[in-house]
Design goal:
Pfam families: AMP-binding, AMP-binding_C. One of its GO terms (molecular function) is acid-thiol ligase activity. Keywords: Membrane, Transmembrane, Transmembrane helix. It comes from Bacillus cereus (strain VD014). This protein has about 500 residues and is of the alpha/beta class. The chain has a nine-stranded mixed sheet with strand order 2-1-10-9-11-12-13-14-15, sandwiched between helices. Strands 16, 17, 19, 20 and 21 form a five-stranded antiparallel sheet that branches. A four-stranded parallel sheet has the order 4-3-5-6, sandwiched between helices. It folds into three domains: about 180 residues, 3-Layer(aba) Sandwich (Rossmann fold), CATH 3.40.50.12780; about 170 residues, Rossmann fold; about 100 residues, GMP Synthetase, Chain A, domain 3, CATH 3.30.300. It is built from 15 helices and 26 strands.
């Protein structure tokens, strides 16, 4: 297989009446295939061909799927942009990748309609109603080393980097994920994660390759998600740790909530251990996959097999098929078991580099090894544990403190939905601050302090507790710690 479009093409041939679900309408693979081929005509008429870059600026929808595979069908490169992006973000990406076309939906087009961006670029709004499904063009042959996607990582302190992923990168990673999830045409998944995000993109590819049902659902309210899981007999659900935390605290989550759910995957950020135990105790038959990855790795690097969840609680498992992983010190020398170091990885799923950023690429790609920037260790059985991001460390009173450790304990409180721990610094005046989102309006600070005193030494306990309605995040769901630091500095120092 050389082109990702073949995933869809093969599923359409084998299971033409399997379907995607969007907005309560069932779209068979055969119907979608007709629209994909028609969409290629619209795109090709804009002068788009092999290796041209096409931005997809739209929400999860049937139009997104049609446009995505149509771009790949033509041998062009997909550049997805989340709808939460600011005009400044979009301008940065447009300036960097120089797209030949920007496709958007009618509902999102209003965000940019009257901007210089729309005036200076080839922007087209599309709707399923406007696509003539009776016309088509021939697909273009691709080499596996050809670019399939450029996914921009949302930098928390700098401009986003364009991660260049080839067809081979994505095919290799998708096949490995399918191998351990054991997906087939009878599986279905509730897709709530944005397809513009590498985790969401992997869901689109795995379930299309498996010929499964993809149920596109935009709402993120916990109870609505639980209702759909049960009502539609969904077999798989993918989410992130912070959203699971909210679901367990806000949703009416019981053993009966699962319906036909066979598995759940968790990635993108660390999940509170107590939530994993709680979920596992609710339904012993539910397979819980804890995973770890990066956009630079086409999504996935490791997974923890469900049978080892209790025994290796807190681990992200072992490398997936095709990935080699090492833990190294600052000199690049591999360390022993239970020794902390930087996680580096190698495999056919690793990106070719950052677009137009040779210096940044050189910093993270060395002799085909990707230096992830994540600090962790490997136990004597070969299981990987993530400690923190290399640059997230807080230096306080001579100690080196991991904010994630403190956040995990804070999030154990029943009235806290999520939190972020940051260093609050002004010259030599340094404090540890916890910014929290509450389930209810009030928080007993003494109650929280009591929990933390039982779990942490005094120097790790935040001296500032600050509540907000929501945490500032990038489009990929990463907390903007620099923004929180600035806010706290203005308020407390």
């Amino acid at each position: 297989m050389e082109n990702l479009y073949e995933y869809f093409h093969n599923s359409c041939k084998t299971y033409p009446n399997n379907y995607y679900v969007f907005d309560q309408k069932y779209w068979t693979y055969n119907e979608v295939n007709q629209y994909i081929k028609a969409m290629t005509v619209k795109i090709k008429n804009n002068g788009i061909g092999v290796n041209d870059k096409v931005i997809l600026y739209m929400e999860n929808s049937i139009e997104y799927i049609i446009s995505y595979f149509a771009i790949l069908y033509l041998g062009a490169t997909v550049v997805p942009i989340t709808i939460s992006s600011t005009i400044e973000n979009i301008n940065d990406i447009v300036e960097d990748c120089k797209p030949a076309l920007l496709l958007t939906s009618s509902s999102v087009f209003s965000n940019i309609k009257n901007t210089e961006l729309a005036k200076k670029n080839n922007v087209q709004s599309i709707s399923i109603k406007e696509i003539d499904s009776t016309v088509c063009v021939e697909s273009q042959q691709c080499r596996t080393g050809q670019l399939a996607m450029i996914i921009y990582t949302s930098g928390t302190t700098s401009k986003p980097k364009g991660v260049m992923l080839t067809h081979k990168n994505l095919i290799t990673n998708t096949d490995s994920i399918l191998d351990y999830l054991c997906l087939d045409h009878s599986d279905s998944i509730l897709a709530t994660l944005p397809f513009t995000y590498s985790y969401g993109n992997s869901i689109l590819l795995t379930h299309t390759k498996a010929s499964g049902l993809l149920y596109i659902f935009r709402a993120t309210y916990p109870q609505e998600i639980l209702n759909i899981l049960k009502k539609e007999n969904i077999t798989g659900f993918s989410t992130v740790g912070s959203h699971l935390n909210i679901m367990l605290k806000q949703g009416n989550f019981t053993a009966e909530s699962f319906g036909k759910l066979r598995y759940i995957t968790l990635a993108g950020e660390q999940t509170v251990k107590s939530n994993l135990i709680k979920l596992n105790n609710m339904n012993k038959d539910l397979k819980i996959y804890v995973m770890y990855g990066q956009t630079e790795a086409s999504a996935r690097l490791t997974y923890l097999e469900p049978s080892m969840l209790q025994q290796k609680l807190g681990s992200v498992g072992k490398p997936i098929k095709g990935v080699t992983l090492k833990i190294v010190d600052e000199e690049g020398i591999e360390v022993g078991h239970d020794e902390n170091g930087e996680i580096i990885v190698k495999g056919d799923n690793i990106m070719s580099g950052y677009l137009n950023m040779p210096d940044e690429t050189e910093k993270v790609l060395k002799d085909r090894w990707l230096y992830t920037g994540d600090i962790g260790y490997k136990d004597s059985d070969g299981y990987i544990y993530i400690i923190r991001r290399k640059n997230d460390i807080i230096k306080y009173l001579g100690y080196r403190i991991s904010p994630v450790e403190i956040e995990n304990y804070i999030n154990m409180h029943d009235n806290i939905l999520e939190s972020a721990v940051v260093e609050c610094r002004k010259e030599e005046n340094v404090k540890i601050a916890a910014v929290i989102v509450l389930k209810n309006e009030k928080l007993d600070i003494n109650d929280l302090s009591q929990i933390l005193r039982k779990k942490l030494p005094s120097y790790k306990i935040p001296s500032i507790i600050y509540t907000v309605d929501k945490l500032p995040k990038t489009s990929n769901g990463k907390i903007k710690r620099s923004e929180l630091k600035e806010m706290l500095k203005q308020s407390f120092l």
